[in-house]
Amino acid sequence: MLYLLHTLPGLGQLAWREAEAKLPVTIGKPGPSTIGIRLVPRRNDIVLLRYAGDPKALLRLRVSEDVFAVAARAFSVSSDERGLRQIYAAVRNSRFVGDALNAWKQATASRRLPATFRVVAREVGEHYFMRRAVGKAVADAVTDGWPGRWQKVDEEADLEVWASLLEKELFCAVRLSGLEMRQRGKQHHLPASLRPAMAAAMVFLTDPAPDDVFLDPMAGAGTLLAERAAAGPFRQIYGGDINAKAVEAMRANTRSLKGAITCERWDAGALPLEDESVDKVAVNLPFGKQIAPGNDLVALYGGVLAEIQRVLRPDGRLVALVGESQALNKARSAAPQLRPGPNHRVTILGQAAAIRIFDKRP
Ligand SMILES: C[S@@+](CC[C@H](N)C(=O)[O-])C[C@H]1O[C@@H](n2cnc3c(N)ncnc32)[C@H](O)[C@@H]1O
């Protein structure tokens, strides 16, 4: 069965690596395999994943925000008026519709087939027809050709059918995930809070281990702490922030999580932690509007990097999300033992940013 995993721009590769690392493999069946990544600029990275196991396992992935089962595909959709007829025919006659609807039943633990549906249509590239026309072609094909009786509605549909026309390639897929996969039940949100999928990608890059002492020195509402707790066993998680309201939100968001999690109000430039007492650090460095005017970013980052270098054990790892790469580059002289590794380019609220990895020299 072919699935689509939607994630944030720039995270496609990491969503793929997480899926291949974490999805359970059924004996006698092939393991998960990724057959490609497609980009919807400024909206999504889409991972095309073949998986023979229970689709419910896909809903437990954390670097992905949404999961879809592919019901129909077309490869050479014409950009002129013939394209709409091709889309209609591909969706109406697809032999994957039954499997996709079964995946929906399994993922949603529903005994019956859905009866109402709505179509979400997206287009990337130049086409003679509008997005709405793609939606109509798909809706007509569902009502005319899919098994069962279908009623198209505008809201509160049993089933969402997403039609993504990416240049000449069409994916028509049914949505298996609900809002909770994207939101993860976090209650207290601050303006600078990370999307959980971004935090999960950063935690994944720390290479979580069961005896990890994990630190986020500028933790805001605690999204990285919650994602580290969800990633598997740990010895201790420390989170802190200079802002009292952030610490309040962090405590509220981590209260129900199991394990040793300590949240403190502190200045990340003077951490109340022993030298070499931490295995992994992940941090979303404040930038842009999150910084009071007149504050020197290079000095702030330099102070924080020096403290991270001090508390990290040799071979420990720092994963930092940075919007102001130049300021970080200038600040790096404050922490010469932090050796830079690979970068991942991402987009945060439409702004270019990067996830940067540093390992502390032994
Ligand atoms: C980008 S936000 C972190 C958001 C967090 N990752 C989340 O998802 O909620 C940066 C945080 O750094 C905090 N901060 C700024 N200067 C700090 C300092 N010197 N020490 C500790 N925290 C600081 C801010 O209060 C803010 O909450």
Structural features, described:
The chain has 362 residues and is α/β, with parallel strands linked by helices. The chain folds into 2 domains: 2-181, VC0802-like, CATH 3.30.2130; 184-360, Vaccinia Virus protein VP39 (Rossmann fold), CATH 3.40.50. 29% of the residues lie in helices and 30% in strands. The protein has 10 helices and 15 strands. The protein has helices at residues 12-22, 82-93, 97-108, 131-145, 179-183, 196-205, 223-230, 244-254, 297-311, 325-331, and strands at residues 2-7, 33-40, 44-50, 66-74, 116-124, 151-152, 159-166, 169-175, 213-216, 236-241, 261-265, 278-284, 312-322, 338-348, 351-360. The strands form 2 sheets. The protein has an 8-stranded mixed sheet. Strands 11-10-9-12-13-15-14 form a 7-stranded mixed sheet. The longest helix is centred in the middle third of the chain and has 15 residues, at 131-145. It is elongated, with a radius of gyration of 23 Å. It binds S-adenosylmethionine (SAM). S-adenosylmethionine binds next to helix 7.
